[in-house]
Amino acid sequence: MAAYAQTEPQAGSNPLAIRSRARRVDGGWHLDAEKHLIGLGAWAGVLTVLAKGVDRDGSPLGPMVLLVPEDAPGLAHGPEALTMGMRAMVQNTVRCEGVFVPDARVLLAPGEGMQVAHDAMGFARLGVGALCVGAMKRCAQLMARYAARREVATGRLLDNPVSCARLHELTCAVWALEALVEAIAAALDAREPLPRHACLACKCVGSELLWEAADWLVQMLGGRGYLENNAAPQMLRDARVLRILEGPTETLYMHLGGAAAPDSGAERFLAHGLGRPRLAAELGRTVASIRERAAGARRFAGDGAQVQGLDYRIGELCAFAILLGAAERRAAGDEGGAQASAALEWARARYDRVRRAIAAEQDAAHGYPSASVLLERIGAYAQAIGDVDQQPAGVEQLPDPMLRAADLPQPPAPAASPALAPRAAGDAMRRLVRESVTRWLASDGRPSMPAFGDDTPFAELGIDSLATVPIALEIEQRAAVPVVPELLYDYPTVNALAAWLEAQGAPAQAGI
Ligand SMILES: Cc1cc2nc3c(=O)[nH]c(=O)nc-3n(C[C@H](O)[C@H](O)[C@H](O)COP(=O)(O)OP(=O)(O)OC[C@H]3O[C@@H](n4cnc5c(N)ncnc54)[C@H](O)[C@@H]3O)c2cc1C
């Protein structure tokens, strides 16, 4: 068995923030890593560990993935996490202290670790989608068994219109999600490259639909749905984590939305992978009109939040468009029949639901309050319910320190990066970085260029871990010094990155 170790206590959904280090030594690497929530960690024969590579002279080499066998000296496993579900699979912390990893156990080259990570997660996301299809079928099976036998005030529960509608929706969801899993699997069987955007959509939509299904299962079983002996609570608990692991829905939608541009991965998969050029064009038009309406409107307090909030919603729309496209493709094939047309109608309705929700948000008179207003509002709840640190009896593991009642930090003013180079960069180097960022923003399909200054955090511009790759590449070519994508995390503004480049001796006029 193999385990994949990426998550760290400080860096979960943001892989660029990882602190684990692999330092180059003779014949290989010394790995220092601290990971948590690693599925199968203590049971695996080999651990696949994501760390930041560091050269002998301390210069960064970018993310790398190293294979660590279970008996490697310096590898230690921490206690098993007491999880809400997925209890057939151990989750534990993993610590590597100076573990020697020979060169032959590095996957791809140093600096190409994110490629390995994205590949691993792409396949895992398709796997989650497939798992959701099976689990949704199981929910439907249990619901049907109970409803067929249970008499309620209106008669047999199965004949009740609410039950009937839910089971119908569930079978449509199963049919459509199965169509998407099959379409991606067919592309892989045909030796096509992994369609990452489609895998991402499959994971998000699958886990969200399974969560709905598991909730309906508990509801349809009534009080029996709440009893441990009836499988439903376990289904609900197991399903819940799928919206979080392999990337939480929010980060993935945000990424999908940020990348939604004409001829983006999502549109290409729709048009060519699924053979739905009309739907791809419709999605393109809808996204353009949503962005056009959003230009100039201010829904959130911060500038970056405007972009991110919109990307999130557009990502959700893209994901449901891909689900709809897969349903259209399956219906157009030899499947046919009443189930096909009903499922198609359902998939169209779900897509329209997201589109309408976005329109309603854009119509709303009120924007969203700032973080400090929210904290103040919620802080006042303590008068009614107190503000306690809660710990279940009989459980030894303490709640996470981030859940402590005391010392809740106020939203911080944007802090200077500790890694920030002390001196200010020259104009030429700042211009180089600014232009590379601007070029990426322009290629990202945004109708209007967000205003940004030399101290605007890159994260506020929607630059996520995938976006850092092309930007770093361009800067590397122009500045003529090695630039790994993670540097955009360590030096998160134009000023900071330009100062770092100058400190590396990048010629100020290089490539400008
Ligand atoms: C049962 C289980 C098994 C796991 N197995 C593994 C494993 O095998 N290997 C491994 O490496 N990890 C594993 N994990 C860890 C899992 O991948 C992380 O929990 C997940 O990536 C989220 O990271 P985090 O917990 O640090 O959440 P955080 O990063 O603290 O995020 C918390 C929440 O904030 C929101 N959020 C975060 N970023 C954004 C954003 N950019 N925009 C909007 N909202 C955002 C999301 O709602 C997210 O759920 C496992 C976790 C569990 C529970």
UniProtKB/TrEMBL annotation:
InterPro entries the record matches: ACP-like_sf (IPR036736), Acyl-CoA_Oxase/DH_mid-dom (IPR006091), Acyl-CoA_Oxase/DH_mid-dom_sf (IPR046373), AcylCo_DH-like_C (IPR036250), AcylCo_DH/oxidase_C (IPR009075), AcylCoA_DH/oxidase_NM_dom_sf (IPR009100), PKS_PP-bd (IPR020806), PP-bd_ACP (IPR009081)
Family from the record: Belongs to the acyl-CoA dehydrogenase family.
Pfam families associated with the record: Acyl-CoA_dh_1 (PF00441), Acyl-CoA_dh_M (PF02770), PP-binding (PF00550)
Entry keyword set: FAD, Flavoprotein, Phosphopantetheine, Phosphoprotein
Coiled coil: none
Gene3D superfamilies from the UniProt entry: ACP-like (1.10.1200.10), Butyryl-CoA Dehydrogenase, subunit A, domain 2 (2.40.110.10), Butyryl-CoA Dehydrogenase, subunit A, domain 3 (1.20.140.10)
CDD domains: ACAD
PANTHER family: ACYL-COA DEHYDROGENASE, COMPLEX I ASSEMBLY FACTOR ACAD9, MITOCHONDRIAL
Domain Carrier per the UniProt entry, residue ranges: 427-505
Name of the protein described by the UniProt record: Acyl-CoA dehydrogenase family protein
Protease listed as a keyword: no
